[in-house]
Amino acid sequence: MTARDRRPVSGVLLLDKPVGWTSNAALQAVKRLYQAQKAGHTGSLDPLASGLLPICLGEATKLSGLLLNADKAYRFTCRLGVTTTTGDAEGEILATRPVGPLSREQAEATLRRFTGTIQQIPPMYSALKRDGQPLYKLARKGIEVERAPREVTIHDLRLLRLDGEELECELRCSKGTYVRTLAADLGEALGCGAHIVALRRTAVEPYDAARMVTLETLRERAEQGLAVLDEMLLPADSALPDWPAVQVRGDSAFYLRQGQPVLVPRAPTQGWVRLYEGEERFLGIGEILDDGRVAPRRLLL
Which of 189, 217, 237 is the last residue of a domain? Predict the structure, then answer.
């Protein structure tokens, strides 16, 4: 299929990315199934991880940056007593240590130490770049470089299961949180080390796992036709459920499309807003200026 044959389909797909797939491979598979002209994901998931990967198609890609900055939620399982080069089960073993007696109360007390604003040192096996080179490529060559600590917020960290040398947790955190680093730091705090053996993303605000779709389901729907496949998409404005809505009509809608601020009666007095022509047609996002006018910031075609 040539680029000319692809469709200007638009919307947000909540993909349940399978283990073993890179985020880009999953994105390209969705793009092919939808025969979409344009597509982008909203933040990578490691191949080891499964779960929610919102994929924006068409005009919805203009809002993907908002989801990059969103809070996330995960469920993960640690193997205690073993540290690895990558912080997960795919790395080489660095050290093994006895776990010793560990009560649920001790584990929960340790988890509480990691809630709130914390500092993390990004792992070498990450997509961060140094002089244009991803860190994971340097790590594969045996090169380690100094990384500055980054501030992240752990909103909630709960123990789900403690079973011998396995620790399963539920996490809600800010963007930029490295779950592998969190697991390794938890292991050190427990005195035995740890690495991730299972990781699943369960939410990217405002979306949760309830409406996720697997690649297998998408392939089945594709066999029934593109119209059936399109039914799996959420509208672009579903990414902004809590933003105030501003409705414009006539000349105001025209001037907004020309990039000009307009005065809208009864609009909010500050902040960011969703823009609609009439009651239903989503135009994009805008910002309230100091003089009360609504300025377009990112408009959809």
Answer: 237
